[in-house]
Amino acid sequence: MKAEIIAIGSELLTPFRQDTNSLFLTAELNKLGIEVSRKCVVGDDAAQLREAFREALGRAELVIGMGGLGPTEDDLTRETVAELLGRRLVRDEEIVRAMQERFRRFRREMPETNLRQAMVPEGATPLPNPRGTAPGLWMETGGHIVVLLPGPPAELKPMFTESVEKRLAERSRGVWLLTRELRVAGVPESEVDAKIAPIYRAAAGVETTILASPGEIQIHLRAWAGNRAAAEKALDGLAEKIRQALGDTVFTMRGESLEEVVAAALAEARATIAVAESCTGGQVAERLTSIPGSSNYFLGGVVSYANEMKTAWADVPAAVLKTHGAVSGEVARAMAEGIRRSTGATLGLGITGIAGPGGATPEKPVGTVHIALAAEGETKERRFLFPGDREIVRRQASQRALDLVRRYFENRGKDIRK
Amino acid sequence: MKAEIIAIGSELLTPFRQDTNSLFLTAELNKLGIEVSRKCVVGDDAAQLREAFREALGRAELVIGMGGLGPTEDDLTRETVAELLGRRLVRDEEIVRAMQERFRRFRREMPETNLRQAMVPEGATPLPNPRGTAPGLWMETGGHIVVLLPGPPAELKPMFTESVEKRLAERSRGVWLLTRELRVAGVPESEVDAKIAPIYRAAAGVETTILASPGEIQIHLRAWAGNRAAAEKALDGLAEKIRQALGDTVFTMRGESLEEVVAAALAEARATIAVAESCTGGQVAERLTSIPGSSNYFLGGVVSYANEMKTAWADVPAAVLKTHGAVSGEVARAMAEGIRRSTGATLGLGITGIAGPGGATPEKPVGTVHIALAAEGETKERRFLFPGDREIVRRQASQRALDLVRRYFENRGKDIRK
Predict the structure, then answer these.
(1) What is the H or E stretch that residue A2 is in?
(2) B305, A283: Cβ pair inside 8 Å?
């Protein structure tokens, strides 16, 4: 089955707002074996709306409209689609009662205009909206399905899950979309693609999408399958081939974030960590503590921007700072070892560098970053030169710092306290 | 003039990728007085492509296509649009030379397939692409303009600025889009809207869009104007009325981020700051150091997750922790004062709270956050109860912490060292 998605709202045609509902809908439709063949954004304009629905119904079996179901004069979707399909609007007393009940609960008077939301095209099935006043609508017409959903994601998503998904699944034709997601740290996109393009190009029936962000490459594999077991096996085989080609730069086969992988490794090893950051400004601590339960393994971090703070908090000897400069392998090592010592953590991370745009010298250009990881009896240190602006340098640095921790556990086996 | 934008590429119809070029294009077109009346995403399919361009040309004077200009068999835009407009494709020897030159520079052999990119519809003007091999195309046909741009943002954006903007400006009809952007911290969207809706609804000819994110509301004002000076004045008048209605919760009238405003206030006052964070996990430090030149005012921060680190780094007396608990106004005060003392900063920020999902008690539910700001001779402390999940609680907490610093300078006048 093919679907088209129409996002409705003049604000979606400004530079400030973007339709993101369609990404959620696409993922959900794909799971049901339904492909999205076109997406459109139109303003709150009856003629534009009518044309968009008319065109879409000429091409796709399923047309999903989002937005324009509210109570104001700008909201034209219900009326326009009813008119296009030649259906009268009839007031649904059950919807009126549900709306009145909702307003009573919030102790507010229901404005007369809200009654518009209780108007339902003849033959349409209203879809309840417990999180708002605008009900959705399900209509069938000449072999086509039209679904109208409210625009706010907090209303659209549960309505799809509770009322639309099951109805569509009943019409699904035993086709599934199966997916896998690998993620890679610390390798440029061109290198990843050079290594794996011959593998995924040879895999018939699997779509491969490669997404690059600073310090991370995501590899999405998708297969439309009639025979689910066979397709699962084929996808797993392809994912494993790609993993072998990329080696230990792959940090997940299940689409987790790097901080989630590191958090799981720390928890499994019953290890703790502390961080001394300079150029990343707290981003490594922020990422590590974004995971629920992080207080079990994260003891603390310092953002030692001023040299005195590197000495006071991370115990970096003033002589090391003076001899080698704040951006040096020696200082990164001293930060990692010092923060480990002062917190009593299993592992200490030290990061110092030049995020730019200022602060560079001929020997230490913007993007120079030293990262050190201190453990019992050993400290590893690496120097990087990251391309890009301040934000991108900082992101790559925090990514490589977390990846250093991930690799530490992969190489040591899981329980480092043995 | 009205424009439609067609984004081309099957990967844009997956859940993983989204057209973001159209936001850039919309902003640029709007500046030229051109309104975007529809946006579409279509896959790499000749029939779909042809229909999308045919429909768009039936409605809009300007149609911009993005993507599908590459050298592979998937790239169909050039051929399909030429065929639709009834134009022959002719090889442009200058483009061939430019491509060969580019491959020579990167010391690579040019694949035969790249010659497809040198095929130009008769009568079309190629748009140079110094950042890639695919040239853009500018075509005029029966009162319509068709512009084809490459999909990668790093190629599309400079090509628009260097080759398209001027050509479109020559056709502009003396209509401009003027904009203002106010931002508000620490007030819920419903409260902002209740205060300003009567004001912006009464302002004819100005579109108002309100965008809410955790801890921040953006108010975008837009006016299409033939008489620029009059419209500037009307917009300024409306922005000022809105500012008055919202009072000192407005932190910018120029669309800056809160960290930019705080950075500017610190720099102007020649003041320094240090931060002791618990539940925000380094996010306040990360935001303060995201601004270039932050080493001038940011001395350092600690993420004192474990209680011992609150004592060691932020000088919080163990007795205060024991008596009041880590999440308390007293500890927030002690953190703010301690970090100020230990770094010698003009200002010290202390933040402690429960981001969730774990760690709550009946007296201290998830979302409880204490924020304190210590200055010479005075410390202010506030307790908040933020709704939402871990990420949203943390974002709101860092937002309110920065806003506390912003208000400190607003209320004190600029030079606090006097």
Answers:
(1) strand A2-8
(2) no
